[in-house]
Amino acid sequence: MEYDLGWVVFTALLGGIVGIYGFLKKANEWFYVSSLGEKQKTLPPGDMGWPFIGNILSFLRAFKNGDPDSFIASFATRFGQARVYRAFMFGNPTIIVTTPETCRKVLMDDEHFGPGWPKSVTALFGKKALHGVSIQEHKRLLRLTAAPIKGHEALSVYLDYIKHIAKTSFDEWASMEQPIEFITEMRKITFKVIMTIFMSSEVDPRSMKAMEKEYTQLCHGHKAMTINLPGFAYHRAIKARKNLIKLFQAVVDERRTMIKSNQSKAKKDMLDLMIETEDDDGRKLSDEEIIDLIIAYLFAGHESSAHAATWTIIFLQKHPQFFKTAKEEQEEIIRRRPPTETGLSLKEIRQMEYLSKVIDETLRLANLSFVLFREARTDVSINGYNIPKGWKVLAWIRHIHMNPEIYPNPREFNPSRWDDRRTKPGGYIPFGAGSRLCPGADLAKLEVSVFLHYFLLDYKLELLNPGCGVTYLPIPRPSDNCLARITKISKSTA
């Protein structure tokens, strides 16, 4: 009798556990899908995970275990090659699109898709930043602020400074006896470049160092779990934003005072432009808009440059044949240079055809931004599937760049794949597409080209842990931050 009673209790407990598990596993489906009525029949296949957290644990597991592509692969394995899937990501019901055609449509169609960044990103980068405002406001802000960092012609005024900081920094690193974290040092110099574009050289070194420290902390939290408790990356990022606002506000206040008192400057920087410019209705930017824009542009023109340059150098060092070809191109540029010219010119940068392929291949393989966020403004159909109004839409561009149907042997670094290659629309979108194309793309490419020119000619990177793994969040980087020694190998006349 006791034996039978024990089995009854055990069976009841097991059944209860299974029932609770089944309920929790389907809770998101019932809450978000059942309310759609007939529309639910045309939703993409997928799995919306657990209540509140959705699929975020499997997402983090894939990225933190060094196999980020397994996340989307798991959807394909379970639900077939639909290539459009439903999920629950970053606190919202979500549609994930993974093909060039669907990603391009989502990124280009401003009528049906608006900004969809998680609330955590808005909290860190600001409500007035470019990523979160309406398309009309986005266009207004770009008209008022983007001219100094869009297009190589506009950026050419900063070329001498970028060259100077590249050469002096590389020389300094090569003289050090101790190894350096190469990616950390690259981030520091790209931060100096973007801050010079914004604020000239008027910020004192201590304030600059404090800004760089707080900004780095902010960046580390923008793709972390949104747990605003001490000890978590997101909490540290929120604190860093508050400190960063104070530092920037002091600079803005000082600059406004200088402008009001007619203290003229020989050359205006971007901060002057943002303070003085006004739109067609006579509106000027508020302090909040200016500071949020500075933070947004920092991310757009600083993170991409540092990580792209680092990964390009790593890839080239690991592939001597490509390193040799890239170096020979830079040496040829110097040989063709007229005696009357000194230093690298914008014209010469445009002649770097092979290096351009190397950079494109790096951006494809490194996938500095694996996904872009949008939100459905209305009910919209993609590939025969319904995307409900208000649902988030993630353009999973990493899946495109790593798709063997588009790029044979996608995990292989091969700049030659860009020889006379014409990718289908949406097949290569490292900086996004459409009206919200990353405003820092031109600056990033210019900086990387300049850094690589001098590095290829005169320096060598010796990795201390050549087999170390990769940390994929928030941005892919070697797990040891590229611990290395820099060796100077020659003295060019670049």
TrEMBL record:
Cite the CDD domains for this sequence: CYP90-like
Family named by the database record: Belongs to the cytochrome P450 family.
**Pathway(s) where this gene product acts:** Hormone biosynthesis; Plant hormone biosynthesis; gibberellin biosynthesis
Q: Is Ribosomal protein included in the keywords of this UniProt record?
A: no
Q: In Gene Ontology terms, what is a biological process of this protein?
A: gibberellin biosynthetic process
Cofactor(s) needed:
heme
Which is one Pfam family of this protein? p450
Query: Which parts of the chain span the membrane according to its record?
Result: 6-24
Record: residues binding heme: 438
Membrane topology category: Single-pass membrane protein
- An example molecular function term from Gene Ontology annotations: ent-kaurenoic acid monooxygenase activity
Q: Which UniProt keywords apply?
A: Heme, Iron, Membrane, Metal-binding, Monooxygenase, Oxidoreductase, Transmembrane, Transmembrane helix
A single GO cellular-component term on record = membrane
Listed name of the protein: Ent-kaurenoic acid oxidase
Gene3D superfamilies, from UniProt? Cytochrome P450
Q: Where found?
A: Membrane
Question: What is the role of the protein in this entry?
Answer: Catalyzes three successive oxidations of ent-kaurenoic acid giving gibberellin 12 (GA12), a key step in gibberellins (GAs) biosynthesis. GAs, which are involved many processes, including stem elongation, play a central role in plant development.
Name the principal localization, coarsely classed: membrane
